[in-house]
Design goal:
Number of domains: 1
Oligomer: single chain
CATH superfamily: Vaccinia Virus protein VP39
Number of strands: 12
CATH class: Alpha Beta
Strand order of the largest sheet: 6-5-2-7-8-12-11
Distance between the termini: 40 Å
Helix content: 25-40%
Largest sheet: 7 strands, mixed
Radius of gyration: 19 Å
Number of helices: 10
Strand content: 15-25%
CATH architecture: 3-Layer(aba) Sandwich
Order of helices and strands: EHEEEHEHEHEHEHHHEEHEEH
CATH topology: Rossmann fold
């Protein structure tokens, strides 16, 4: 059996986990009081192993699954997904003895669509909070759009802008490998990111293309969450920075519920200056 290794993370992960903890607890409290709602689930598409090591201090901290499992009131059910079998084995240890936890080893892009989202239908008076927190340009747009159209699922999603800048949004777009362009299109939903990611400017010898800034790109993605995925409420995302001040990713929230939007917007703004 492969040896298990706890992920090392930066301080931005600790901030993200505080955001998730605060919102998920508020979410569970609100839905627990609603008589019509039959079921409200917590979904983690890139669950990890339940713990992390802070790179700066060496301290072990709880990951999002461990935090969610301690939520009071508890969620009706928990769905944890990860590609790495050593991580899901560790999650099974953490959740040992609980009948309200389902753990899947596999690609969340298929697991969510085929196995988890069908259990969260709006017409069945079911709701879900879904965390999509990968290390790269993921998940596929199909997952995000499905969640938006279902109306029953709220999401936290990180847009790994550092991955996009390093591997796709190059100064000379014609040099980007097709495999990287395809990866971006899967995440974005089509190839319209090319029009967003580059701005045409007049040059001395004709029109030239210049790479757009992060703000232009993430705002365009926010509009896609609303206009194409169908989420009614998408506040401005929270930029998550490393110790050098570079943005690693943007943490989005998207919902079809105004109350959820107001709570999430407050929490995201609270941590924007930290």
């Amino acid at each position: 059996m492969p040896e298990f290794k706890v992920d090392e993370v930066g301080n931005w992960t600790e901030i993200k986990l505080r955001v998730i903890r605060e919102y998920s607890e508020a979410y569970a409290r609100i839905l627990a009081r609603q008589e019509k709602i039959q079921h409200y689930a917590y979904i983690d598409g890139f669950a990890g192993a339940g713990t992390h090591i802070l790179r700066e201090t060496g301290q072990e901290i709880e990951g999002s699954p461990s935090i969610a499992l301690k939520s009071q009131p508890p969620f009706s059910h928990y769905h944890f997904i990860d590609m790495d079998g050593t991580r899901t084995d560790r999650l099974r240890e953490i959740a040992s003895g609980r009948s309200d936890v389902s753990i899947y080893t596999g690609d969340c892009n298929s697991v969510l669509i085929d196995k988890v989202f069908p259990k969260c239908r709006y017409d069945d008076y079911r709701r879900a909070l879904c965390l999509l927190d990968p290390y790269d340009l993921n998940p596929n747009w199909e997952v995000v759009r499905t969640a938006g159209k279902m109306r029953s699922i709220e999401i936290f999603l990180n847009f790994m802008i550092m991955d996009a800048n390093m591997n796709v949004l190059w100064k000379y777009p014609e040099k980007v490998p097709e495999s990287q362009r395809s990866r971006m299109s899967l995440f974005w939903g089509d190839d319209s990111w090319r029009e967003v990611g580059y701005i045409k400017q007049p040059g001395l010898f004709g029109e030239i293309e210049e790479k757009a800034g992060n703000i232009t790109i993430v705002e365009a993605y926010r509009r896609r969450l609303q206009e194409i995925a169908g989420f009614k409420f998408v506040p401005k995302p929270l930029p998550m920075k490393n110790s050098k001040g570079s943005v690693i990713y943007y943490l989005y929230f998207a919902s079809n519920n105004r109350t959820g939007y107001e709570i999430a917007d407050h929490v995201l703004k609270k941590y924007k200056t930290r």
